[in-house]
Amino acid sequence: MKHIVILGGGFAGINLLNGLKKELGISLGKEVKITLVDKSSFHFRKVLLFKSVVEDADLKVPLKRYCTDGMEFIKGEAITCNHSKKEIDIKLEDERIKTVQYDYLVLALGSVIQEIPSTLGGTTLSSTKTAIEIRQKLLSLIQLAKIEENKEVRRELLRIAIVGGGITGIETSAEICVWFKGEVQKVGLNPAEVEVILFDSKEHLLRGVPVKVSDRLTYELKKIGIKCISKTRVMKFENGQLVCTNGTTYTVGECIWTPGVKVNPIIQTFNLPLSNENQILVTDTYSIKGYSHIYAIGDCARVVDKKTKQVDGMTCKEAIPQATRLSKILKNEIYGVSNSIIHKPYPVKLYCISLGPNNGFVWVQKWGLDFILSGKIGSRIRERTWNQASLLV
Ligand SMILES: Cc1cc2nc3c(=O)[nH]c(=O)nc-3n(C[C@H](O)[C@H](O)[C@H](O)COP(=O)(O)OP(=O)(O)OC[C@H]3O[C@@H](n4cnc5c(N)ncnc54)[C@H](O)[C@@H]3O)c2cc1C
Hints:
Layout: E1 2-7, H1 11-24, E2 32-38, E3 42-44, H2 51-54, E4 60-62, E5 72-82, E6 87-92, E7 97-101, E8 104-107, E9 111-113, E10 123-124, H3 128-147, H4 151-157, E11 159-163, H5 167-186, E12 195-199, H6 211-224, E13 226-229, E14 234-238, E15 241-244, E16 249-251, E17 254-257, E18 261-263, E19 280-281, E20 287-288, E21 291-296, E22 301-302, H7 316-334, E23 349-354, E24 360-366, E25 369-374, H8 375-389
Parallel strand pairs: 1-2, 1-8, 2-5, 8-21, 10-17, 11-12, 11-17, 12-13, 19-22
Antiparallel strand pairs: 3-4, 5-6, 6-7, 9-18, 14-15, 15-16, 20-21, 23-24, 24-25
Bound molecules: flavin-adenine dinucleotide.
The site of flavin-adenine dinucleotide has 34 residues, from helix 1, strand 2, strand 5, strand 9 and helix 5.
């Protein structure tokens, strides 16, 4: 029996499991055994992290839910990989080390959110714990504003800065803005006194999007009450003052950092070929250069289209098709069938963004044309993509 070990039950890992289930069918458990290893017992829907700032959102899906048809799940942290012996060491919850043998190993160990040093002030939105901390801070600002008679000081308390204009920063700003206005109104204050400012160091919001699309998104954010300040790098948040590298300062109640992700640092210890960004270098069949039988997909892999040299981004829309393709490649490999499946870049340019409850923004570029859907329909599409990514529909 061949043994496939998948490290990581994030978006790439669970979609690979799903693809293998479809590809291998009845061979599962008979000719092929699959083991999923994750340091958590759940798949974390991190694309929805911003929701935890405003409500107790349940973003955890038990990984056992995906390990059907006799698939095995091991809760533990992959710590060392012995390529020549085809073994992986896993640190279990009780600190014991379990060595697992594999025929095929797939690394889907993803990325982690970059932490802004606490000395720079404010809070980084990096986990549900920090999301709840942010919520508590914002609610205490409302209590201070409630007893503040000076209108200007009250407005300063109700002014929130979000730093980082990527998808997380945009979605967090929109969700917070709508919720915060509602909370302010509940205590009898004027929601018009709330101001949410989204800071970004670049000239336009979102990478790779035409300027007119970025401008339209900025307009949609303005309609909700969010002010976008571009070409401005925030340096620190101290005593209610947000200090920017260009010398400007803003008085705000709270600063929330949404700085983006970096490749999972554990990857660096596995002694595999890495890119400058510490992603694993893979071929167009996702195997690791120089190491047959080891594959990498998702955020931890540097996937390049041979023809166009286009590099896949660190998003679900890239990780999921990689996983689906790899399930077919592995099936061909296991059964000795000559493989014609190779990596292809995502066929359209696409962004799906939530702009608070019942509001969304979807941009698709195909045949050189830009298509935008916003409002309720944009929100519905967004919700569907979240659920599809976690295999909940
Ligand atoms: C806040 C946020 C918002 C985002 N929003 C979007 C979005 O709107 N749209 C979009 O397309 N993309 C978005 N992304 C990016 C998207 O989440 C990633 O591209 C996607 O998660 C990549 O999937 P992955 O499986 O490669 O990695 P991950 O989802 O990071 O999964 C890695 C898994 O490996 C496990 N793991 C890590 N180390 C070990 C170890 N040593 N041993 C065992 N298990 C381990 C982790 O527990 C995790 O389950 C967002 C990312 C963040 C952080």
